[in-house]
TrEMBL record:
Domain of life: Eukaryota
InterPro entries to which the protein is assigned, alphabetical: DNA/RNA_pol_sf, RVT_2
Coiled-coil boundaries: none
Ranges of residues in domain Reverse transcriptase Ty1/copia-type: 115-243
Protein name: Copia-type pol polyprotein
Organism (species): Trifolium medium
Amino acid sequence: MTRPFIRSIQVEASETNNDLPESNEIQVYEELQEAPEVTKTNAAPRNSFKYKSSHPKELIIGIKESPRKTRSSFRNEDSLVGLISMIEPTKIEEALKDDAWIVAMQEELNQFQRNDVWTLVPKPKSKNIIGTKWVFRNKLNEQGEVVRNKARLVAQGYSQQEEIDFTETFAPVARLEAIRLLLSYAVNHGITLYQMDVKSAFLNGVIAEEVYVKQPPSFEDLACPEHVFRLKKSLYGLKQAPRA
């Protein structure tokens, strides 16, 4: 019985190691003699896999019926890094198909809960119920790259009735002259000034009016789908939101 693997190793050793002493060659041959013989019974079966030009369908992850995507088509696709979407949905139905925007909407509702913005109550009969809407925006960095998906729940303030749902709508902002006076006073007396930005600032303003809004679209309470929210604090889109 021939030993093809022994013969190939001996030839390779003789070709690559011509300077080896004779004792090393004998030692290698003796070790190979102890190796088990390769017969047809214990030989490895031949690989029957056939290479194909297309990827096997059983190994495709995702929708198998979707067309093949080229490199240029991926520019409008969602980014899988950190669950950041590159597309700004215009409707809630589009946002619900993307996990990144679902997470963004849930973060917005968590802000409502932390700030104690509203409370769920039965729908009153003689009160104006204001609708709500989701607005989706991509936040960019200095390089113009999308770094965060922002979903904001806003009230449809156009349906508010004056003297019932709101009274004053002005925003209490500082005059430019007052800011200049403050900066001059700080420089003259060596005072350090700090500037800060409040996240979801409108959700911190308490409102005096009795305002009711509908539940967020696609996030209704399954136990009380007909209930509405009574606002304790201001909401983006309300007429009195800047004043609060």
